């Protein structure tokens, strides 16, 4: 067989029999993009929630739970980071002066944030048709409170953007974006109404 023909046959075999890793799941991508269409930070929403596509699909309740879940995960990571910074009193990366006071306040704010997000996720897992309205209203209130706590944390460092503070601000800001997205998904759930619970 000529060398050129052999190459063509080999290429055809590879295309036919080897699985393609590059082609995404078009349905899954569509599910998450549809869910994230109501959020302010859509790219972040799509990236953080795409693993939930195969289970959440078109279910607003599951997307709301997913949104709160990823916000909790990120808030936990940032809370640990803040606690580490607070304990660092002598290292080269320690935070001083007014920033240190703001850091202590921020640690407390994130504890409140986590309390409110955990409370919200608990209720979202137990939604009922009968109590749907009051449950979703409570969840929206708690997630809004979590967002306020995160903003309060950032306000303490306003105009204090030294090299030691910028990474902190970036990490906290990322949590606020995820919490904002979660709140948007909760509002979408409220609009969908209790009928969405009957569809899985």
From TrEMBL:
Query: Which Gene3D superfamilies does this one have?
Result: Invertase/pectin methylesterase inhibitor family protein
Which PANTHER family does UniProt cross-reference here?
A: PECTINESTERASE INHIBITOR-LIKE, PLANT INVERTASE_PECTIN METHYLESTERASE INHIBITOR SUPERFAMILY PROTEIN
Entry keyword Signal: yes
User: Which cell locations does it reside in?
Assistant: Secreted, Extracellular space, Apoplast
Q: Which domain of life is it from?
A: Eukaryota
Q: What is this protein called?
A: Pectinesterase inhibitor 6
Q: Residues in domain Pectinesterase inhibitor?
A: 27-185
Q: What are the annotated GO cellular component locations? A: apoplast
